[in-house]
Amino acid sequence: MIKIILAVLALNLIALVSKTTLGLPIHIFDMDWEKNIPTLIETLLFLAVAMEAWRARKTASAALKRGWGIITGVFLFLALDEWLMIHDSLTEGIRTTLNTTGILYFAWVIPYAGLVLIFGLIMLKFLLKLPQITRLQLIASGIIFVGGALGFELINGLLKGAIGADSVLYALGTTTEELMEFTGLALALTAIMRHTGFILPNIVSTAISRPRTTIAILSLFLIDSVYTASINDWNLYPDWIEAPIKHLIK
Question: Which residues contact 108 (CB under 8 A, 6 or more apart)?
């Protein structure tokens, strides 16, 4: 898992260097972009946490089943939210309605901060019933993830409004935000796996052993990614990739 995160980070740094020094954006590897490789991996991490929480629910005591079930549902929603850009779609409407600027430039943080508070209050009793090591690891993962997703989003909103999205400082801010999200998810997944005693299979070997499933997932990702990129003029892919998929969808 660490190797995957480091690989995503390395590709993101290549994209940032290319964009900030050469003026050549490589959006397919950029953590601050959507429907690309980092987005796919983060979505899969959300799904992995949801599946592992469901596994924990199956063997949990009656007092803990509800908590693990809530975690499963929340992370399934977060997976959908990440891939379908639900929170991003809220920003424009909230920003216009409330006239938010500065640290609230990305206005979606307002309702989501409230949801995080409600989630924390609901899960407090559940956390207190967990073994100490699992409780501490999950709390740490939550602090890291929320610190990135909400905390650094506030900072990046301020930076974007003040110096623009093409600045090196903003790029470093978004990279830190995404890295904290990845780290928080990885820590949460590790904590639940240790709690259940389940070891996640090697992703590469699993993908190779199930070629049809792997090809189907990657094909759906590519079609949706290229379609979304093409209708929004994101320039994620070269024309020779976008053209046949546009034709297929039409």
Answer: 87, 88, 90, 91, 94
